[in-house]
UniProtKB/TrEMBL annotation:
One of its GO terms (biological process) is cellular response to heat. The gene is clpb. PANTHER family: ATP-DEPENDENT CLP PROTEASE, MITOCHONDRIAL DISAGGREGASE. Residues 409-498 form the Clp ATPase C-terminal domain. Residues 211-359 form the AAA+ ATPase domain. This is ClpB homolog, mitochondrial AAA ATPase chaperonin. Keywords: ANK repeat, ATP-binding, Nucleotide-binding. The keyword ATP-binding applies. ANK repeats lie at residues 37-69, 106-138.
Amino acid sequence: APVTPSAYIMFTLLNNAVVFLSRLVKEGVDPNHRHRLGWTALMVAAMNRQHSVVKVLLEAGADPNAGDHFNNVYDTSREKGIHSLEVLVSREDEFSHRLSSRAGFRGCTALHYATLADDPRTVRMLLEAGANPLQTNALGHTARSYAKEGEVGTVLQEWEGKVWLDGRRRRGGGFPLERRLKEHIIGQEGAINTVASAIRRKENGWYDEEHPLVFLFLGSSGIGKTELAKQVARYMHKDIKKVSCVILSKYFKISFKVAKFIGSPPGYVGHEEGGQLTKLLKACPNAVVLFDEVDKAHPDVLTIMLQLFDEGRLTDGKGKTIECKDAIFIMTSNVASDEIAQHGLQLREEAEEVSRRKLADNLDDVQKSDDIKISRQFKESVIRPILKAHFRRDEFLGRINEIVYFLPFCHSELLQLVSKELNFWAKKAKQRHDITLKWDRPVLDLLAGGYNMHYGARSIKHEVERRVVNQLAAAYEQELLPKGCTLRLSVQSGGREERSVPSLRLEVVGEDSSSRTLDIRPPLSPEH
């Protein structure tokens, strides 16, 4: 007698299921047919450790990445209009009685269920058939999130690395790391190239697997050090919140706070909580860890880092050893920032002089910012002694793979920063007040003049807020901005006086392209 598709799923629970399934496959029954409550035969077989059934279903074309439509007993009961007891009985009798009725299973794949069943053989079969170990369920959990300690977790971790790297290689053909970083970082060509080269070596197996990869980012504040570290973390991992951590070393000036790093020893307050660093590395051994402002850390913290960088392992407060040889550690510091900035400015002046000479000779190859490179002599004779005097440990500096230098912005990079900031506020003006904001090119040059080498990009941000956003806010408060209007920023000359400073003018542009300068009243002084 013909067998219905619903019975197809039921046969996976029988001892002689393979015989029936083979017959059904020949009759053309869809191997991805779902139970009325949402699951497939492959999920049932995976959960119940039926290896021969899994094999037949995969060969018949069952999708290993199909997600379960079943959530939990009570939600499914409401969705289907069925009594919760009937749903519970069906789930236990026709799927598995070992799963919680209250837990959520929507989006779980056969790989999730094989992991819950702690069945390494089925896990391998599914992975080899194309199951994606990075696929998440409705709760955002991959299969490895449900793995116990042992073979299943190890297999899933290995395959996650393979799938992630293969996918990135396919996406990365003609889209190298340098280009991706440059989409988010303005300038700093040398720093980006140095970091990308080191990570490329690590990705392709050309690195020392006995030690983690360690960077030290040097340069002024607000110049892109922390942002580059965050972009590296986003590149290495999909979810930056889960796999990277910003640890502000300035909070570790006092020796007794070192316990926050690795956890308090037994008998001390906070022993059960563990340390910031140890918890992170235990959860993700290949994390990207950022130590911000490392120059402000206590010497005891540097001792812990030395063990971390040299041995690739860390002992927590409970005496457990955590392996982290596959991690990437990035330290940032403002040490020697003035020397680096002055040297960078000198190099730019020399490059501009070379460019002027080439232009005078009618040559087109003008010097670019990415041609600026800090000399080896400067690194050894100026920077190295400063670092040694500050950290006082040659072995600590010796474990750093790359010291990366961040230079002050050149004028073209400052224009990019100003444009980025103006675009940010233009988007806000459109979203919040339906105001279109435009500006002339001289506006960029004027605002770029507010750059302060010691504060980096933050000085541009503050200049835009002070000279542009303050005017916009005052005009809005004084009801000078018609709804849906177009505003144009332009530069107004300061007059004939030599010391007069150009100012920004705010104009309302009409539909006929006519413009009207806004008469924005200055704020009252405190005495008024």
